[in-house]
């Protein structure tokens, strides 16, 4: 498991810093519930996403952080419960708000997403938040392409064929 990576978010923005790297989805425990192979961490640890964090100031001089994530994950189809490969590709820009102003600020409506500035910002937790926010609420295969639905249909047909002789037999035994 990857070590916790902490950054000072305001300092990060003020110095226009940038970090990038790769991280295994298995090191984000809050994602386990939504990933199809969550009970197989060894398997899912092969699934890595790449990320870039950039600190900067926007045109109004506000400290900002941009988060870029790219990769793919396996979600569970809400119709057939089979895995779906879901491409992860997103960019978020977060406004860093001073903690002292946060309570007052968070009551106001803002166009950009905002997070409280944190001198010990957990990079992995932040990436996890952003991924969770961007995942579909109820992922599904394209209609009619669910595998188990099609397999279920085939099994049903085979069972019907197999059941017929038994039905005849059991009918004979009763006599
Ligand atoms: Zn499906």
From TrEMBL:
The keyword Kinase does not apply. One of its GO terms (cellular component) is cytosol. One of its GO terms (biological process) is ribosome biogenesis. Keywords: Ribosome biogenesis. The keyword Isomerase does not apply. Belongs to the DUF177 domain family. Plays a role in synthesis, processing and/or stability of 23S rRNA. This is Large ribosomal RNA subunit accumulation protein YceD. It comes from Candidatus Nitrotoga fabula. The lineage of its organism: Bacteria, Pseudomonadati, Pseudomonadota, Betaproteobacteria, Nitrosomonadales.
């Amino acid at each position: 498991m990857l070590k916790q990576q902490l950054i000072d978010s305001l300092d990060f923005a003020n110095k226009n810093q940038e970090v990038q790297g790769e991280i295994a989805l298995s090191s984000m425990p809050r994602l386990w519930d939504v990933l199809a192979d969550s009970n197989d961490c060894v398997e899912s640890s092969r699934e890595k996403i790449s990320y870039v964090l950039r600190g900067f100031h926007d045109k109004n001089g506000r400290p900002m952080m941009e988060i870029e994530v790219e990769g793919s994950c396996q979600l569970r189809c809400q119709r057939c419960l089979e895995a779906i490969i879901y491409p992860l590709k997103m960019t978020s820009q977060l406004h860093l708000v001073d903690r002292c102003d946060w309570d007052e600020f968070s009551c106001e409506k803002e166009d950009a997403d905002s997070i409280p500035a944190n001198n010990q910002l957990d990079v992995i937790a932040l990436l996890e938040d952003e991924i969770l926010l961007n995942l579909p609420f109820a992922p599904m295969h394209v209609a009619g392409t669910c595998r188990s639905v099609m397999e279920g249909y085939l099994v049903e047909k085979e069972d019907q064929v197999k059941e017929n002789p038994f039905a005849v037999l059991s009918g004979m035994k009763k006599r």
